[in-house]
Structures are given as structure tokens and as C-alpha cells.
């Protein structure tokens, strides 16, 4: 392949640097390179500073040249903090039982693919989740829930007077679609991974979601419902008992 002239090389380098004016320096070189490839494919003008940070990943808004925003979730490739959980919910999932992983990077990439797959399955049956756009190695691109690069608040961030009966019932309806149509259990649902936008709940962080046939599905579904019930009950909202909801979802409730 012919080498680029020096002037074009310099212009290209400056454009790539412009992409990352606010993004932190913890991104490794391979992820940095992959972000450049994604920017070219999705017409992204700039990646902005992180809007959320967790034990397994950070999420950044990305603005396109035509003013659209994406949510870019970048999974850490150097941390071993959550490797045990990732193995548990990936290797134990029949959809991934044939996948071979020999190093941490492959494990993390598989985890990103699992979240993309879960998001796709949920989105297609009508669960309110960010629309999945693409996954590339440890990078997941999703619909941005919010406006002008400002994300919608999490359920836990709302004022007490914004926590309503309608919001509770909307979230329970989303759980019912998730279980009844997508045949998935979130597995880590709480006020920390539900966003509220235009008065409606959006479920996020679905990487650990497991199919109903998983041996821990009922146990994790019970925990999900109890987390949600405990939060809304603490805000004075009338809740439906966990066992009653489990029965409605086809579990014993015992």
C-alpha cells in the first residue's frame, strides 16, 4: 500500500486527536485504535467525557457531525475485578457454552458481545432498552438516552416527588415483557440500572442477563423484583408482593 504524504498524515493525526479531547487516558492503544475505526464508520466527530463509571466499564457520549449522539460503552480490559462474575454468567449461559476464551481480553470481548446480544433480544420484543447499534471487541455502541450529550437520570437520582405509582407499574410491565417475551432475567436489576426519560423507564446494563433455563434464573428474578419493590416501597409507593409477581411470571413464588 502506498504511503500517505507527510501533510496528509499530519492532518489525519490531528483529526484523530480531536476525537478524544475529553476522553480520559485510561483507554489502551488497541481500544483507542478501534474507537477511531468506529468513528469513521458512524460519522462521529468527537468522544466526550465519561457519563458513568462502573466496576466493569465506562460509558461516554459521542457526537456525530450531524449532531446525533451515541452512548459508547467501553469495557475495561485490564481489570480482573469482575472476571469471576463474567465467567459465571457467560460460561453458564447455554448461548455461549461453545465459546472458547483463553485470555482476559477474549473474555471481556465475549462479555461485550453478550450485552449486545441481550440488548438486541430485548429491543426486538419491545422492552425499553437503548437500541443496540454495534459491538466491536470491548466496545458497545448504543442509542443515547438523554438530550444534547446529557444522559437521562437514573431511577435513584430522581426527587421523591418524581417517584410515582405510574413509574412503578411501568417498570413492572417492562420486567414482564423481559421475562414473558424475551425469556431473559436481568439478574442485577435495581434503581441503579434503570434510566427515566420522558416519564418512562429504560432498563440498562444487561450484560449479565441470563435465559430462563439458567439454573439461577428464578433466584435472580426474585432478587430483581425485591430490589425494585424495596426501592418503591421506601418511597411510599404501593407495591405488588414479590411472590404474587413471580406467580404471574410463571414461577412458583414459593
Automatic annotation (TrEMBL):
Family from the record: Belongs to the protein kinase superfamily. RIO-type Ser/Thr kinase family.
InterPro entries given in the database record: Kinase-like_dom_sf, Prot_kinase_dom, RIO-type_Ser/Thr_kinase, RIO_dom, RIO_kinase, RIO_kinase_CS
Keywords: ATP-binding, Kinase, Magnesium, Metal-binding, Nucleotide-binding, Serine/threonine-protein kinase, Transferase
GO MF annotations, alphabetized: ATP binding; metal ion binding; protein serine/threonine kinase activity
Domain Protein kinase: 45-254
PANTHER family with a match to the protein in the record: SERINE/THREONINE-PROTEIN KINASE RIO1
EC number(s) per entry: 2.7.11.1
Top-rank taxon, per record: Archaea
Catalytic activity annotation: L-seryl-[protein] + ATP = O-phospho-L-seryl-[protein] + ADP + H(+); L-threonyl-[protein] + ATP = O-phospho-L-threonyl-[protein] + ADP + H(+)
EC top class, as a word: transferase
Pfam families, A to Z: RIO1
Protein name (database record): non-specific serine/threonine protein kinase
